[in-house]
């Protein structure tokens, strides 16, 4: 099955989003500035601790102006929505500051360090009447939507098992992903994608997943930080699931496998379908490969954000708002508790 979603450009929006960027994180080009250019949205402002880095991002991406501080950016009335790619433990602080400044937020995952902080941001967003959207970009892509279709159509039969593998080479020793204080760890960086995917699939077969056990391997030089974490979960339907996350492999693996009573489906790169848009379906002796389009999941994400802010919530888009972020962080906390590491400390 081939979809026309492989297109790399879209019709410019009638009213572009006006986006401000906190920091100059490495992910920003792939996750925001390139997609904004392709989809026709404005990059109004950027601020970073190092002004030179902010200026470099502005020069490279065509950001309209550089502010001297995060606070200055949040006070800029031309900024409509704030993109937050800061280290995990800083998400809560600056998401909350953006909300209190009356700005919508697109926050990198996970939205906060723990569920307690996610609740604080949710409550503030409700009081301010703004949206906080968690950037699980893959859920907007046709690859994920096809997995949902295969599950709900009955072609795979009753769901029996979900297996998610998230593996990347080890980051450098000075990388914030190894810092407990900055909310590091394999589950925070990688496994949360699998947990959120299970949360999207679970209600289709009976309800939210529940953690039944977890095992972690700590980094030898960074106590409390999981270099690897394997979480076992159960769904109310009786299906089981495993989410394996590891920072320390020889390659990148982002796979999701659904096993049913009649067949199975695998998306070999479900988190980055722009790299590999295949869904492999096996039913009995038959196997087929479907291609769902290599348009970036980040482009799809900005399209969905624009629909939300211009038209309101839509049934065609996943709910990634502040209430949803709380539920995901509760699941993350439960995995850490089950693994004996404890939830990441609250900062708000």
3D structure, described in words:
The protein is of the alpha/beta class. The strands form two sheets. Strands 8-9-10-7-11-12-13-14 form an eight-stranded mixed beta sheet. Strands 3-2-1-4-5-6 form a six-stranded parallel beta sheet, with helices on both faces. Helix content is 33%, strand content 26%. The chain is globular, with a radius of gyration of 20 Å. It has helices at residues 27-39, 51-61, 70-74, 88-100, 115-128, 142-153, 186-201, 297-311, 322-338, and strands spanning 18-22, 42-47, 65-67, 81-84, 104-107, 132-134, 159-168, 210-219, 222-234, 240-247, 253-260, 263-267, 278-283, 286-291. Helix 4 (88-100) packs parallel to helix 5 and helix 5 runs antiparallel to helix 9. A hairpin with a 2-residue loop joins strand 13 (278-283) and strand 14 (286-291). It has nine helices and 14 strands.
What's the shape?
Answer: globular
Secondary structure category:
alpha/beta
Contiguous uncertain segments of 5+ residues: 1-9
Could you estimate the helical fraction of the residues in percent?
A: 25-40%
Quote the beta fraction: 25-35%
Output mean pLDDT. 95
